[in-house]
Design brief:
268 residues, mainly beta, 14% helix
């Protein structure tokens, strides 16, 4: 009869044993291309979606982040695409005081990272169709959709090399920013809760190239009939006003999601 090892690392279905780990696996994503578009929004509207003890950061900034991930070690070299929406946030817990980005939602087009990210790191991941980005006449474009209906379109144009001041500011922001989320697992049947806790999931990036440009974003209002499981959150994001666009980025490089001395953890 199957028995759980209290020291094992399991994901469902757990009765086949702990997660298999290969010596070839690591947290490195060796080929990552990103598009990042940030904008200032209304503070009071944004704070509706940050649970206590999170607070909106110094500025009410929303960042929409597209990534084409390739050569992923833990996926045996396979890859996937994602679009995440983050809010600048401060965590004021009893023991932890952190500044960084709170993940409002993260769409991915592959089940494996969705499940591990939800169960192990507490990242609010859900599915969407996310094709590879396109580049035409210097314009970079990406999008996400579900059930055949568009969720969001993003584009970046007028790309140029960043100034030295922009590079230094970006490096400081990255060094001082912690990715955070909320791990919520409902009780059986969907009511009550088994786990409800804030989390941090640090990462590190190495960039081969960085370009700065002008970004644009279009959220699509949806109905229950068009997207019955996600329309409410898409519409909530669409209703956040874009008060001011900030510099948009296109980057190429690598990302590591497993930092031995700074692993994902619950916050308090």
């Amino acid at each position: 009869m199957f028995k759980f090892d209290p020291n094992g690392s399991y994901v469902m279905p757990a009765h086949f044993g702990p997660r298999p780990l290969s010596p070839k696996a690591s947290g490195w994503y060796h080929d990552v291309t990103t598009m990042v578009i940030s904008y200032l929004t209304d503070r009071e509207q944004l704070e509706r979606y940050l649970p206590e003890p999170f607070e909106v950061g110094e500025e009410a900034l929303v960042s929409v982040f597209y990534a084409r991930n390739r050569q992923v070690d833990w996926l045996a070299g396979h890859g996937y695409n994602m679009i995440a929406v983050n809010a600048s946030a401060v965590f004021n817990g009893e023991n932890d005081k952190l500044t960084g980005q709170y993940t409002l939602v993260m769409w991915e087009n592959l089940t494996d990272p969705i499940l591990t990210g939800r169960e192990l790191q507490g990242i609010p991941k859900i599915y969407a169709d996310i094709p590879d980005h396109t580049v035409l006449h210097g314009e970079w474009r990406s999008s996400a959709s579900h059930f055949g209906h568009k969720i969001v379109d993003i584009a970046i144009t007028d790309l140029r090399a960043p100034t030295e001041e922009e590079m230094e500011a970006g490096q400081r922001a990255q060094a001082e920013s912690t990715p955070m989320a909320w791990r919520y697992l409902p009780g059986v049947g969907g009511f009550g809760q088994t786990t409800s806790e804030p989390t941090a999931y640090p990462s590190e990036n190495e960039f081969r190239s960085v370009l700065v440009g002008e970004g644009s974003i279009e959220w699509h209002q949806l109905t229950w009939e068009q997207n019955p499981t996600q329309f409410h959150l898409v519409n909530a994001l669409a209703e956040l006003p874009i008060l001011e666009h900030r510099a948009a980025l296109v980057t190429e490089g690598s990302t590591n999601l497993i930092i031995p001395d700074n692993l994902p953890r619950g916050l308090s």
